[in-house]
Amino acid sequence: MSNRPLASAGRAVPLLRAGLIAGIVIAALAYPMVAVTGLGAKATAHATEHKTKLLTKALPAETSYLYLPDGKTVLTMFYEEYRQYTKLSDMSPNIQQAIVAAEDSRFYQHKGVDPKGVVRAFVANAGSGGVSQGASTLTMQYVRMALRDSATTPKEVQEATQQTSLRKIREMRLAMDLEKELSKEDIIERYLNSAYFGHRAYGIYAASEIFFSKTPKDLTPVEAATLAGLVKSPSQYDPATSDQKEATARRNYVLDRMSQLGYLSPDAATAAKGEPIRLKLTDPPNDCAAVPEKYNSWGFICDYVKNWWSAQPAFGENRLERMDKLRRGGYRIVLSIDPKIQEAAQKNLGAGTGSPFANGIVLSEPGTGRVKAMAVNRTYSLDLAENPLSSNPEAGPKVKANYPNTVAPLLGGGDLPGYQAGSTFKMFPMLAALNAGMPLSTSFNAPHRYQSAIYDGWAPTNASGAMSGMQTMWSGFGKSVNTYFVWLEERVGADKAVRLAEQLGLRWRTDVDREQASPSKVKKWGAFTLGVSDATPLEMANAYAAIAADGMYCEAIPVQGIFNRDGTPTTYSTASGISREVAKPRCRQVVTADAARAATDAARCPTGDTPARGGCGGWSTADSVRGTVGRPVAGKTGTTDSTRSAWFVGYTPELAAASFISDPDNPFNAVGDGQSQIPISAVAETLRDGLKGKPTRQFTPPSDAIVG
């Protein structure tokens, strides 16, 4: 006589009925036409087939990594679910065996749905009057996770996770179809990469790293059993909590099952159960606030990468889609920043973090637009508690200043308008005039005060009476003669200068600037040449880099490579349908090479360098630069009324740099003449240090035709 207890008479009928229902469900799944007929059956079959094909291609969300230029050192990561896809061959057999033992011991015998498990669950649930057991195989669980991860609407998420019989039946059918398309190895690999193990660990790579600081390939049976035990209830069995009692009991259950299935010997299982759970926790960084302390200044670069990314159509139709791709797409992003130049830029700033005046510098590579350095005298931090109050009287009584801590994009690439750039803007009317065919020798007897007939009687003056007299583009640019450049802008047209600046990457972010640049007003924007518009160091460095590159403007780009999760370069389709790599330079000729070379020849005058074809008129505004840099260099100083801000933009054939000093909180808080040398020194010293040891390159002289 059997020792198994007999079911009571009162329960016999429900149990038999439950078993019968389970059998009918399995039959209906295997032969769906029994349940539906006609066009409805065809539609159901087509929908299921379509969904199955989607699931065979579906991949879970994966962490994106931001690397230093060496392509090896991780600066930070971006993720909603911390996960790195791992091939089954890179996982220890221990974790494969443990997950089968914990979740689906008949995984290698069934074809997606386990009939015995279904019957067992139906019987148990009917007997308990509720849901005491599930019947989900690993394949069914993977289907549920894949449907959830590939959902694009809240409704699809709900359908994938809601506790209904219809969802369970749909999972069963899809699981059986999926096993016809994928091998058992493919399914368990995808499962282990999709499962949530708790503690922000999605997938086995994250779980191994977060709990044990190792790769899945190195997991011991004890560690594998601990992780496999988490899947059922990640919070309940979390071993990182103070009490490991439940986690240990669950681990030991998995070890027993591994022994029963022949994966471990009884003695090995007993020994493993006697071991404590030894954790070595890792907290993976996420986003720019988690940049390591030794790379603190790179936090601003990280933020710029995010802002740049959010503007790239290659990653989606809008900002939300693009940022979702960044956090879920598993990209490998390699920065273009040169560590040597970045270090030099940070070192050569002339104001400390405790100054209300922001002093920053950006360096761009001519011919590629790749950003090589971004440095500012601020600590990258979200903690503003110790910051003083803002210097802006209109900011309010409790508004904090931007120093010493901030994450504001003070160097550009964000939504801040920038700072008035003063006479650095004189480059734009000069370049427009040269591109229109006016020669470098174009002369004008510039008075101290010039009244413009075109600009409605506007009468600007020069900074000094010594600037008066006959000027050419060389001397006018070298001495920064306001009246000469207002006159020159009149000749070429303010609209031509403004539109050229736009082609060189400048954008108008204030209402005043947008209005002045509008078609109805741009021809009268005479003050444009004096730099009354706001600009960012990023924009100015990149605009001047185009001049260094013989008139070839390249969009600013902070990366040298972006790679998909399979290691291939990330591409996008141009308007003409051509596939291009996202990280490749995007360049276009804005002005002729001869015009750019002529502008460079004039721009050597402000720096104390000697132009190839003309004379600078005896003195210049930043004549120390050439001696500091120690190689051919061009550039332009810029200050605004009352020296509220001061700038210098300089370049060699290899690098272009723009530096400023200003109060971002209060543009009326003047930096003063005494600090106007700070941007000049920052640029000169950074170009010197950044190019140290590299061959000296010469600027190409302009042609006779454009010299005049």
Summarize the structure in words.
With 708 residues, this protein is an alpha+beta fold. Among the domains are: 64-79 and 286-335 and 560-581, Penicillin-binding protein 2a (Domain 2), CATH 3.90.1310; 83-274, Penicillin binding protein transpeptidase fold. It is 40% helix and 11% strand. The chain is built from 25 helices and 21 strands. The strands form eight sheets. Strands 7-6-21-20-19 form a five-stranded antiparallel sheet. The chain has a four-stranded mixed sheet with strand order 2-1-5-15. Strands 3-4 form a two-stranded antiparallel ribbon. Strand 16 and strand 17 form a beta hairpin. Helix 16 (427-435) crosses helix 19 (494-503). The longest helix has 22 residues, at 9-30. The chain is elongated and about 100 Å long. The chain starts with 8 loop residues before the first helix and ends with a helix. It comes from Micromonospora musae. It holds the Pfam family Transpeptidase. Residues 361-665 form the Penicillin-binding protein transpeptidase domain. Residues 74-258 form the Glycosyl transferase family domain. Keywords: Carboxypeptidase, Cell shape, Cell wall biogenesis/degradation, Glycosyltransferase, Hydrolase, Multifunctional enzyme, Peptidoglycan synthesis, Protease, Transferase.
